[in-house]
Amino acid sequence: MNTLSLTSLSTKNYKNLSIENGISLNNLNIFIGPNGSGKSNFIAILEFLKNCIIPNSDESQSASQFESAVAILGGSKILDKSLNFPARINFSYHFEEGLNFNLNLFAGAKNAKVSIAEESLSTSIFKRPQPFHYYMYHDKKIGEGVVSVWNDSSEQSSHFENVENVPTNSLGIVVLHNLLEKSENPPQRTPIYKIRRQITDYIKGWHFYNANNMNLEMIRSSEPKIGLSDVFLSPSGHNLALVIENLIQQDMDFDDGFNYAMKSVLPLTRRIRPVRTGLMTVNLEWHFDGLSDHFFLNEMSDGTVRMLCWATILLSPNLPSLLIIDEPELGIHAAWMPVLAEWIKRASERTQVIICTHSPDLLDKFTDFSQNVLCFSEKDQNHFSAEPLSVEMLQERLDEGWKLGDLYRVGDPSIGGWPW
Questions:
Q1: CB 15 within 8 A of CB 103
Q2: Domain spans of the chain?
Q3: Residue 99, Cα to own-chain centre: how many angstroms?
Q4: What does the radius of gyration of the chain's CA atoms come to, in whole angstroms?
Q5: Rounded CA separation 404/409 (Å)
Q6: Contact 299/332 with Cβ under 8 angstroms?
Q7: pLDDT tens for residues 136-189?
Q8: Are 94 and 100 a contacting pair, CB within 8 Å?
Q9: For 114, phi and psi rounded to 5 degrees?
Q10: pLDDT one-digit tens code per residue, 82-137
Q11: Which of 106, 207, 308, 331 has its CA 20 to 30 A from that of 338?
């Protein structure tokens, strides 16, 4: 289990979401709701933070990481359409250990650049009347802020050190070294240094998958180069053969467990194994009982290839620190939903998982996790909110033998998720 996890997320004035009081998250989280109800917007808030943290691969790019992340998020169009410019958009990310990363963005005008209006990192873990702030930027004056420094090595009391030239186009937590390069206080007396590494490493480990973005043609035709260290499947899935090769080399137990799991998809499976197709490339062979010939991925069905991808992601010994999968049921036969659900549950025992689904067949298999299902539904004409299912409201139906997917299929109001 990862040492850090996301406990809740709240936002204000962002697109169509109305979750100012926050959405609490568990290790396993199943999101349901009609199209356009804000599920993808919620995921985009998470992707936005990761995009702000990870350095640009193109060093020649003129935009900062933050500016690029805002552009992906939607630029000034991230503002709630029912509001007028200028306005602020708030994102608050709450982590274990009482950590709260708060970010206010300023949208001055339509089509204008969005900037950082306020940024802070605090914790309630220390027993004090007020939260302990590791830093606060732009809170009193744009471009200035404060950073906490321990008064001595006992770490019992602290004071604020003033910081100047804080940029509004980069997260302060990202450019920390630049901001404190002239500080007279050593890093060991500045608590943000230690917690910064923990938080940024955790966020860098978030992985996002959308079944609609899985490129089946690329997966089938790719023969990735051996020697690359990939142990996580790419969003397109093109490095599938290489990831399986590397995971087997890293953990022999994965080889047996992975092949056993795929037998539950196609029972006649004898073994799936990476094979060299050239001096420096790898592909996958699929062997079946009773057949002397083997098959390559370009000979397997779409649904089979998709299940192979989900098995690689969910059964890996190297799980992301946060795993988000949008519509994993896409192109999957209903008979395989129990298998897919079991893989998801197993992964959630080792890391935090968020699944967005429209499938009642998949939802059926999470009836025993009803308290982990969040329904996005209309709050008013312009906004959607998200609430966990009420197990108390559902209990009578569940005792009668209904499953969550059954209630979803008939549009039962106690579960919601329907567009009417």
A1: no
A2: 6-19+35-204, 213-319
A3: 18
A4: 24
A5: 9
A6: no
A7: 999 999 999 999 999 998 888 899 999 999 999 999 999 999 999 989 898 999
A8: yes
A9: -90, 135
A10: 999 999 999 999 998 889 999 999 999 999 999 999 999 999 876 555 679 999 99
A11: 207
Question: Is the backbone peptide bond immediately before 86 cis, with ω within 30 degrees of 0?
Answer: yes
**Which residues of 138-252 form beta strands (DSSP E)?**
145-150, 158-163, 206-210
Find out whether the peptide bond into 187 is cis, omega within 30 degrees of 0: no
Amino acid identity, position 125: I
Query: Residue 4: what are its φ and ψ, rounded to 5°?
Result: -125, 145
Amino acid letter for position 85 = F
Q: Which amino acid is at 227?
A: G
**Which residues, other chains included, contact 413 with Cβ-Cβ below 8 Å and sequence gap of 6+?**
none
Q: 3-class SS at 6?
A: strand
State whether residue 365 is helix, strand or coil: coil
Three-state DSSP state, 19: strand
User: Cα 364 to the chain's mean position, in Å?
Assistant: 23
Taking alpha carbons only, the member of 62, 77, 61 closest to residue 112 is: 77
Strand-pair partners of 295: 286
Q: Which amino acid is at 121?
A: L
